[in-house]
Amino acid sequence: MPLSAIRTVAKPQNGVGAFILQCKKLEFHYCDWAGSSRGMNAFIKTNLSAFAKRNPSIEISVSPRPRKHPVIRAHYINGNQRSICVRNMSNDIVKEKAELLRDASGEKNQKYSKPVTSINESVRGIWSPFHGAKIQI
Amino acid sequence: MKRIPFSRCATQRLASSTPRRPSCIHNVAPHNHRIQWQARLQTTVATPNDGIAEMMAEVEEVPAPESTSKFPSRSPSRKPLPLEHLPSPHPRAAAQSIKLAALRSRLSLPERFPLQSLARTLVHPSADADPAFNNASLSILGANLLGYYTTEYLLCNYPRLPMDVVFAAHDAYIGPKALALIAREWGIETAAAPGGEVDPGLLQFKRLRPGSDLPAALQRQLPWKWEKTTTHKIVNTDEFGSNVKPASAHALQGTPVPVEEAAQSFVRALIGSLQLHLGTPLVKRFFRDHFLSRQLDLSSLFDFRVPTRDLSRLCAREGFEPPVARLISETGRLSRHPVFVVGIYSGKDKLGEGAGSSLQEAKIRAAAAALKAWYLYKPLEVTVPSSTENELHPKNWKPNMVDCGEVIV
After folding, report:
1. Where are the alpha helices (DSSP H) in B204-250?
2. Mean predicted confidence (pLDDT) in A120-126
């Protein structure tokens, strides 16, 4: 055989071509009795149906969690979970938190030191000492 | 649409064959491929009256799953079966499933793609042996479509690609591993065990228990000597260059399978189902968005053995002057880490260039670069054959370049 081939798998690029929202499930836990759930209960009553309609790709479940603080828990495609305790928060802030969880990628928070990361090769290429003008020392 | 005379039903009810499905004696429900998901409780072996029954006949020899043995005897006063006795979720449950609706929306599929079909693509033959309710037939269609679109993309865009690299590129885009990965990226969750009461939005398959061997149909078989040729791989087996023909999708009925196998059958079946419901243009767009948009560097797939020999054979074949390696620049020849830059020239044309820590290494790299430059040639304007489908007189068709093939040494 003059040549053989190396077997790999093509790398995914979410957003190039198709975009898949990484949040797949949102759970809203509330308490009927406790005061810390007041904002959450208002959100569930007024805003949740519109939120669900705007985000049809997210599975939404609402369940009581008696005598506990209200929690929004998000499940992501990569298998991670992320939850936010929304105690004593008003209706609008609960909505903001739900949107924050919806937009998250599910990856752990990490610091990116480089402004750009790419899987494509640099267009300019790597500097080479053997090309270009000869420098006379 | 066909009506069954009551008397005919009655005589057939006397047949000794055991029912694989609960049958209804008032079996006058319309049997039609398009609405077969509605008629789950009406499909029986005893009343073959259309294509579904014919399809079921071929799996009659397969032993019925354990759950079917619990079917009560046929009596006119039969109640609908409890859901736990069905091998896979009832199609009626699909409309209520949140997971299915979310999945359809996540994949940006239009509303006219029915949830019942989406639910059927999630049922692997290992969960439900009935071909009218599992995804085997859809996945065969989907595998063919995926192979067709990938092949025409690769062969039209890179006409000089060697056959091994074509196989590897297919494997990278639509191979078993790639499809299993794609299913995971779509957020497919698996059911712990298949059954009628399970949410239809979960992938239904019979799990392979940890530590147990793969089913015989999925095990790698050693090829015969005549099966090792490239011609055999092109003509007789799959598009990934396997030596042995892969098992049919129908062959895995009732056998436990690994998750990857079930996940890839789902992706294939989804493509087949999209083709049937939404038509070719949408499938092509879906394929472009979800499969071709993935990043694959074709130049990293090449693995040359003796590139210098290949290059001189190529130059002889194409009538170029024989390739000559010349040193372009060097540094630190006597040091611990010298670098040489070598170019390969054919006459006055530089074919390739490579850098290495020895003259030999740099020459080999330069020859490999020259060969890649030849093999990865890409025509500027390409029309793929499928772009002229459904057109009587395609106007914008331009014949594609066909190359005589890789160098044979």
Report:
1. 230-235
2. 81
Within this chain, do residues B194 and B313 fall inside the same structural domain, yes or no?
Answer: no
**Same domain? B322 vs B296:** no
DSSP-assigned states of every residue in B148-217: HHHHHHHHHH-TT--HHHHHHHHHHHHSHHHHHHHHHHTT--B-SS--TTS-TTSBB-PBPPTTPPPPTT
Does B63 reside within a domain?
Answer: yes
Q: Examine residue B405 and state whether it is found in any structural domain, yes or no.
A: no
pLDDT at B68: 41
Position with higher pLDDT, B76 vs B186: B186
User: Which of B77-81, B212-216, B323-327, B400-404 is the least confident region?
Assistant: B77-81
Q: Is residue A108 part of a domain?
A: no
| Cα dihedral across residues B357, B358, B359, B361: positive or negative | negative
Q: pTM for the full model?
A: 0.82
Query: Which residue is it, tokens 């189902």?
Result: B273
* B contacts of A128 (beta carbons < 8 Å): 341, 355
Distance from CA of B91 to the nearest CA of A (A): 20
Residue-range definition of the domain harbouring residue B312:
304-375
Cβ distance A26 to A81 under 8 Å? no
pLDDT tens digits for range B40-92: 543 333 333 444 444 443 434 344 444 443 344 444 557 788 888 899 999 99
In a domain, A98, yes or no: yes
* B120 within domain boundaries: yes
- State whether residue A80 sits within 8 Å of chain B by CB: no
- Residue B108 located in a structural domain: yes
For B116-170, write each residue's pLDDT tens digit.
999 999 999 999 999 999 999 999 999 999 999 999 999 999 999 999 999 999 9
Which of A24, A128, A130 has its CB closest to that of B102?
A24
Indicate whether B105 pLDDT > 50.
yes
On whether any CB of chain A is under 8 Å from the CB of B285, the answer is no
Tell whether A32 is covered by a domain: yes
Residue B360's SS3 state is helix
Q: Can you give the CATH number for the domain in which A89 is found? A: 3.40.30.10
Co-location of B116 and B243 in the same domain: yes
Q: How confident is the model at residue A42 (pLDDT cuts 50, 70, 90)?
A: very high
Residue A39 lies in a domain: yes
Give ipTM to 2 decimals.
0.91
The count of structural domains within chain B is 3
Asked which of B284, B300, B316 is the last residue of a domain, the reply is B300
* Cα angle: B345, vertex B347, B352; to 5 degrees: 20
Query: Range of A43's domain?
Result: 23-103
**What residues pair up with A75 in beta bridges, in sequence order?**
A25, A81
Alpha-carbon distance of B191 to B204, in angstroms, equals 6
How far is B54 from chain A, CA to nearest CA, in Å?
38
Which residue, among B379, B321, B378, has the nearest Cα to B351 in the 3D structure? Answer: B321
Domain count, chain A: 1
Burial classification of residue B111, based on how many CB atoms lie within 10 Å of its CB (0-12 exposed, 13-18 middle, 19 or more buried): exposed
